[in-house]
Records
---
Amino acid sequence: MVLFIFNAIRPITCVILACFAAVFLNEIADAQFPAVCVQEDALRARTCCPSFDGEVCGGLSRGSCSYTEPSPDFSEKAEYYIYDDRSKWPSRFFDYTCHCEYPFWGPSCSQCVWGRYGDECTEEKTIVRRNIVKNPDVAAKFLTYLQWAKTNASDCMVATTTYAKMWDEDGNFESSFVNTTIYNFLGWLHYYSNKPVHKGAVIVDGSFSHTSTGFLTWHRALELHAERLLQIVSGDFDFALPYWDWTGLDTECDVCTDELFGLPDQNGILSTSPYFKDWAAICGESYLYDEDDTTLCNPNDASFPLVRKVGENNLDNTLPSVDDVMSTVLIPSLDTPPFNKLSNCSFRNSMGGNTNTTTGISNYPSLDKGMHARVHRYIGGCMDDVPCSLADPIFFGHHGNVDRIFEKWLRYWKPTLRSYPIDVGYVGHGRYAYQVPFLPISSHDEMFVNTLSLGYDYDDLDENGIYPGEVIPDNSDYYGECTSRVTTLYP
């Protein structure tokens, strides 16, 4: 339940997470749940339709306040999800939201769709994401913008209790919101999407952003939102998130230097980093559970330092190899039943880190020789604790590379939308399910496209997903049971 308040600034903000500091901006902007939407009267009316330029949803040329169908969720565990604020998003809070006319977007239709810029969203632009190690100018900007996002408070507010806890037995509203910084808000968002569904002693593996089909598309959306936030906080609308290409580095963390993401000392503290030595972690694993299932992480409770334990995990003390990446890309199917950590011959599950990259077969729970999760464990510390992993800025370098490999797969196989299943048995992950907790609503199918459709590109991928000088082998050279070149399709 993402409740954040936003008063600051600039109609060009194309992000649902737009919580940034007023010091950098000078006009009205909206966030996922703008200030007017988290007031008692708005919550009672179940309506989130803010005004822009004096008109609801920006006026008819931009959008209209309309009924919003709840997310088309499917799950065999649905009986537990009825207690969860995130289920059938955003119907726990609102029935009516702004529906924007293209190319406008945002909670009040004041913003632009991805790839469009300007007050009237008429400027089309494709930004290019580059390797952070090979582009020091990009790295310097990125690290500076992260610092601004971490140290500048915003008008964004987040809830520290569930929706039901906000109302007492007599139906009186008791607000439970706190201010936070731009960066801590992003960390809280990742935590909230990953909070398990549980009721009493029953705990459901119910992450809305991990463990099932929507893993890659959800994180693609998160990166887009973070990228736009950094553009806004810096005023640099040509900025693109860099990626950290960890492929084939073996035991070398080439970004773990004080010139980049920081060199941990013997205790894992970034004590000499000019950028991150004072950063603290938020929303760790201890925040996932509480006795009555009503308490959410307060992102201002940063009581422990940011820690890394690079290469100290005995299971994963190396990074994925070139062959690991190639073998994963050559899996033709996005996902396969049962659409979780046990899926075999699944590109999504292999990217997630739950298969042996030599065979494409799930090795869960042994988790050896994986991909995405392997890098988290290799970095260690907060990165090895999913709820607080975004507290470590290396998260964005890592997930930039995950998205780059996802895009490589999309361009190589050129799958149709039928490659993405409609019902995967996990709420929030199906083809048309809404990506929780974003507002205005977005669904996974919108992110299952070429990045050029979203306004960005990668510096080393051609139209077929091939790196310069790369030769793609036949996947039968890599896989046993996953050699079929027939992509699994769904209705």
---
Amino acid sequence: MPAFPKISLRPEVEHYLRNVFKNTELLNAFGLEGTEQKFEVLLTRLSQPPGFTTVRLNTHLASVECIRDLLTEEIQKQLKDLRKCDVRILPHPKLPDVLLIPVIGPRENLAKYSSEVIVGVQCGNAVLRGAHVFAPGILSAPKFMKAGDVVSVFSDIDGKCTRGAMEFQGNKVFVGNGIAEMKRSSIFCSDKPLKGIGIRMTEPVCLSPCFDKVLSNHIFLQNLPSVVVGHVLAPVPGERILDMCAAPGGKTTHIAALMHDQGEVIAMDKIANKLERIKQNAALLQLKCIKAYCFNGTKALATDATGSSTDGPPFSPESFDRILLDAPCSGLGQRPNMACTWSLKEVLSYQPLQRKLFTVAVKLLKPGGVLVYSTCTITLAENEEQVAWALQTFPCLRLQPQEPHLGGEGMMGACLSRDQLKQLQRFDPACVPAEGFRFNPEEEESSQRTEADFIQQANKDTIGFFIAKFVKVP
């Protein structure tokens, strides 16, 4: 049995996605067998973590070389128990503020212990990306579990485990072994809010460094395509830039860093507690040009009735040099994602909201300004179809080439021309075969890989993501 099954979706959602990836344009280009095969690979890849941890460096505070030395020392400490601890930390040739760390695994020969802890699927996903198990994520633990016990941790794929259970025989996926930091009664019988690490992972199936409270001022964990977005936007010091849906602030802080903290970066999000994370991240990375506002992006354009603010939203038309619309989306490109319980109605609900936000963005953008639209999903409706709609609805917009262009071109199916598809950037997990290369420093095949091999793999083995870049012509 493979380490991970394919992603679990509701039948109507899987049927919808299957039709998306078997649209007429794709069938004409690749045939039924080719499109079916690629879709099955995609479902398998979505349940697995990307093959690399991407670390964005805060070059505003320190040099790449300095941060790399600090990071190397930290990783050597964490992975000291490996027989061969020659884990590479790779600079990205096209992204000067990025370091890549290969994920070790999946390690399919780990022993499984009789004491089993069951965690929720989101908690299990986090473990596969290097996290420990925090107590609120634990659903089931053995009756006599005490601190110091060695346990095997499983993810509840179908959401059927009852909180407080002592065992669970349902559909579950092994994510590794660890040591209990709490006894069972402290997890399930306490009146106090749960916090802290419940299980400290010692043998995760996919071994990645844990970055909890590690070099917090110097590094920011982001998926590779999310870093690419900032470089595609290409902010310039002194400009006024809007990040319309900014939480938790990864792209906002990247934009500010690329501007050398000179200019003005306006970050908006309509959820107050998410906005606090933006402020915290900006303070942590010591970036002062960011101004964060709790505001609904669909109402960010000033009208005669609302009037414009001299500082915060709503804003006057044509008041920003560049705008990033990292739009709310169905998130179906996120990895690892072993189970998605969303209904088809929920998956389809984002396109209208994205268009409202996009319309506001176009009106807020100065003539000659740049608008970058991005999502972390794989559907046509939220990606290429939105580009086709935008070009038809706003004659003032022109698609632009992207630099760097590390992903593939746009997907067929939205009646865009071949030249237009080439100007889009789609990161497609299906581009790496299901049996694709994984790093293990103890295997000869891994040790013989060149740095170029690793970079090529890292550019493909990412979350599902989409980027479009427009310029507003005068």
